[in-house]
UniProtKB/TrEMBL annotation, chain A:
Organism listed in the record: Azospira oryzae
Top-rank lineage group of the source organism: Bacteria
InterPro entries for this protein: ImuA_translesion (IPR047610), P-loop_NTPase (IPR027417), UCP037290 (IPR017166)
Listed name of the protein: Cell division inhibitor SulA/protein ImuA
Spans annotated as Disordered: 222-244
Automatic annotation (TrEMBL), chain B:
Coiled-coil regions, chain positions: none
Species of origin: Azospira oryzae
Matching InterPro entries: DNA/RNA_pol_sf, SulA_CellDiv_inhibitor
Protein name: Protein ImuB
Keyword entries, A-Z: DNA damage
Record keyword DNA damage present: yes
Record flagged with keyword DNA damage: yes
Length: 244, 497
């Protein structure tokens, strides 16, 4: 190693390692913007920046049923400002979101499909003005993803994208990719791509939902599953809800 | 007759007979002069002038005076303001001659002597070409009243728009330019040429005041624009419509107002379509998330709408009408030395712009916010509402107290509520969804709505009279579900994550 001629003091290895342009292979990458704490300390430890990345696209490879919204809710509730939900898989129930810390006034929903949904997402990231953008884009292609990632780089908050798990094989410009699966023990989260390399073992997280505590309580009480009786109003043979 | 720049290059001169003009330029396109249209165009341009100053005066037949002495600082100095004004007027599609002087008459005379500027065929003028006369550009500027006489001196007598007879007499005196005229004693001029000329000179030099009536900005905005050629392609209308939007912007600025909604009418070519009467105009309603007079914002919403539009017939004229105009105070600028405001959360103005663009392209009803309604029936407990961006307090992390009160005593509620309850199979009396469900909490009896049997609100089918027992359930895959049972069996109604 050739020492710099202008620095007479001997350079120690520790000094060198402390330089901002030196990156050690076993450490997570440094990121410009600190991440948004996920609400799960064990997950924060594995993410560069210590949380959901800002100014970058995060890709969740999960079926809609896996409950990415529930996984993200604690982090999103900690933000101030409106959240944009693009093409959510089902209608939202305001009371449930309010209980998760996100009153309905903070939620902005865009109903769109296919190209329109991707365009709306890109527009929102470009224009800014949202605390976070969460989009369900099952059919977005590689070009669309690239555009979204570029738009997300100028966006101040987290940009989260939910895609079907089958897209895991396809390459993606998103710097963070995770698979999320529903398991009886909780959510199985596996980071499949992150800045800084080295993939951690999958994590099992118990979602921070009010209902998740019910099961803990049930386990503690060792209560048998309920077997309710139907509400009594005899004589309605049709196999459908009353209003449908 | 009058001639534009291209015709003048071919040798056609104003005042020439039509036959000799055609002799010089056989491809000449002759249009009859339409005085009413000129007046309308000048009024439109005066509206646009409101972008720069509220003191706009008309100088008929074809002059527009902007009093800019009071707004130099706002636009970053005289050269920057002149640059913006000239570029803006050229973008309005007019060829023009411009000048800047301390008195209106001197400005007009200087402009008469200035070379004509033509609107560029594509886009704005290249920024590299100098504009001001002192840099070798075409725009004469005299900002100093003391030097006004010197600035006017080289002008030819043509610039004064004198009657023919007076002009002739001056030439007989040996007066070739305005400088010669100014050198003559005024008393003699008064005697020989009448009082008018000497009075004009005094007004031009600022010796006597020259008040001009202000342009009365119209109370409602409705400006039309005839397109030079038929347009078949909606995005191509963008360029023409931008002129109208800039006029709207100036009109709004002059009133201190913002627009919440405006309509662009596209008049179709006559005799288009199968009927003789032609098609009715296509109306594009442009809605904005909040009041605005930001031209950029107006333009973006318009281009999203035009980008999606398929024209039924070629368009030959546009009309822009401001529908909803309300007072919009200007935003305060920072005082020097004052710290910029803390970057807290998100900027509602940017949110509004993003939502406007999305709405303009996808439709007004495709973007909505949510409101919790104190109704026990889950289907009725959420209502879609227009995004509320003005109340930033609500956007901040606050829980609506009334809302949490209404929810008190309720069981857990899911994030997602299926549009239609999904019937579930049963094994040994227990519901199935990807395996038998484990019921974790419940029953929560919801029995309500006897009053609106079968009625519909908000276009959604009303659930009517409900009588259900709700349970929180978990299936073997680990999904958290909200299921209910009524007299017809088990249903899946919501998902918790």
């Amino acid at each position: 190693m050739s020492a710099l001629p202008s620095s007479p003091a001997p350079v120690t290895l520790a000094d060198l390692l402390a330089r901002p342009d030196v990156w050690r292979g076993d450490a997570l990458a440094r990121v410009k913007a600190p991440g948004l704490a996920t609400g799960y300390p064990e997950l924060d430890r594995e993410l560069p920046g210590g949380g959901w990345p800002r100014q970058a696209l995060s890709e969740f490879l999960a079926p809609p049923e896996a409950g990415v919204a529930g996984l993200l809710a604690p982090a999103l509730a900690a933000l101030a400002g409106p959240l944009l939900l693009v093409a959510p898989p089902w209608p939202l129930h305001a009371a449930g979101w309010a209980a998760a810390g996100l009153p309905g006034q903070r939620l902005l929903v865009v109903e769109a499909r296919g190209q329109d949904a991707a365009w709306a997402c890109e527009t929102a990231l470009e224009e800014g003005g949202f605390a976070a953008v969460l989009a369900w884009l099952p059919d977005i292609d590689a070009r669309g993803l690239r555009r979204l990632q570029l738009a997300a780089e100028s966006f101040s908050g987290p940009a989260c994208l939910v895609r079907p798990p089958a897209r895991l094989r396809e390459s993606s410009p998103a710097p963070l990719r995770l698979t999320v699966e529903c398991r009886p023990q909780g959510l199985l989260v596996q980071i499949v791509k992150r800045r800084g390399g080295g993939l951690p073992p999958p994590l099992t997280l118990v979602p921070r939902l009010a209902v998740a505590r019910l099961q803990e309580r049930d386990r503690a009480l060792a209560r048998p599953a309920l077997s309710p009786a139907a509400p009594g109003r005899p004589g309605a043979p049709a196999r459908r809800p009353v209003h449908a | 007759m009058a001639a534009n720049g291209a015709a003048r290059q071919l040798g056609v001169a104003p005042g020439m007979g039509l036959a000799s003009a055609w002799g010089l330029a056989p491809e000449l396109k002759v249009t009859e002069r339409d005085g009413a249209a000129e007046t309308r165009a000048l009024a439109g341009l005066a509206c646009w002038g409101g972008n720069f100053t509220p003191q706009v005066s008309l100088d008929p037949p074809a002059g527009l005076l902007l009093e800019i002495g009071g707004c130099l600082r706002l636009f970053g100095g005289l050269p920057a303001l002149l640059q913006q004004a000239v570029d803006g007027a050229l973008a309005q599609g007019y060829s023009l001659a411009a000048a800047c002087a301390p008195t209106p008459l001197a400005a007009r005379w200087l402009a008469n002597g200035a070379p004509w500027l033509e609107p560029a065929a594509d886009g704005p003028r290249p920024a590299a070409t100098p504009l001001l006369a002192e840099n070798g550009g075409p725009l004469p500027v005299c900002a100093d009243p003391a030097r006004l006489g010197a600035a006017l001196a080289p002008l030819s007598l043509d610039c004064l728009e004198l009657p023919r007879q007076q002009r002739q007499r001056l030439e007989n005196f040996g007066v070739a330019c305005l400088g010669d005229l100014l050198a003559l004693p005024r008393a003699g001029l008064n005697r020989r040429l009448g009082l008018q000329l000497a009075a004009d000179l005094a007004r031009a030099l600022g010796e006597v005041p020259d008040p001009r009536p202000r342009f009365p900005f119209p109370d409602t905005f409705r400006q039309g624009l005839e397109l030079p050629a038929r347009v078949d392609d909606a995005p191509a209308l963008n360029f023409a419509a931008r002129r109208l939007l800039q006029q709207l912007q100036g009109w709004l600025a002059s009133r201190g107002a913002g627009v919440g909604r405006c309509t662009l009418e596209l008049q179709h070519e006559k005799y288009a379509g199968s009927t003789r009467r032609g098609l009715p105009p296509t109306r594009l309603v442009l809605g904005f998330a909040g009041l605005t007079r930001d031209g950029e914002r107006l333009q973006r919403v318009l281009s999203e709408r035009l980008g999606r539009l398929a024209l039924a017939a070629p368009v030959d004229a546009l009309t822009l009408i401001a529908d909803q105009v309300e007072e919009l105070p200007g935003s305060d600028r920072q005082l020097p030395g004052q710290a910029p405001p803390e970057e807290e959360g998100t900027d509602p103005a940017r949110t509004a712009v993003a939502l406007e663009r999305i709405k303009a392209r996808l439709g007004e009803d495709k973007v909505y916010s949510l409101a919790a309604v104190p109704d026990h029936r889950p289907e009725q407990a959420t209502r879609r509402c227009a995004p509320n961006l003005d109340l930033h307090g609500i956007m901040a992390r606050t829980q609506d107290p009334g809302h949490s009160q209404a929810m008190a005593g309720q069981g857990p509620r899911p994030l997602w509520l299926l549009a239609h309850p999904q019937a579930l199979g049963e094994t040994q009396g227990r519901p199935r969804h990807g395996g038998p469900l484990q019921l974790l909490a419940g029953p929560e009896r919801i029995e309500s709505g006897w009053w609106d049997e079968g009625e519909s609100a908000d276009g959604l089918p009303a659930p009517g009279d409900l009588r259900r027992d709700y349970f929180v359930a978990r299936n073997p895959a680990g999904e958290w579900l909200w299921v209910f049972r009524d007299e017809s069996g088990w249903f899946l109604h919501g998902r918790f994550a």
